[in-house]
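Dear colleagues,

As part of the handover before I leave the project, I'm documenting each prediction I ran so the next person doesn't have to rerun anything. This entry is a single chain, and its sequence is reproduced below.
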Amino acid sequence: MSAATTGSGTGGTATLAPTETEPRVIVKPLPTKSITYDQVLTLIGLAMQTGVFTLVLIPLHQYGRLGRNIAALPGIPISVLWNFTAYRRWTFNSATAAAIGPGSA
């Protein structure tokens, strides 16, 4: 609630007086879909990155933290390329088709 100070202006104590009420905020419920198509594609990219990390870590495990950091590197471009290709081919392609609409050329 908004409030304005009232008083004599001489540095005494101020009292708060309500001036207007704030509008109510409408809270919308979360979507009922449990998982979306683009989330599935992202999870596949995460699985690919984790799999590459695990396979590369096998010979590099003996080097400790340095080995883990080096093992993480090859999975990053692989998952980025997967996400880029998957989003471009399926997610954004279907969104563009829906925006254009059927029957329009």
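The two ends are 53 Å apart (CA to CA). The chain has a mean pLDDT of 79.

All the best with the project,
I.
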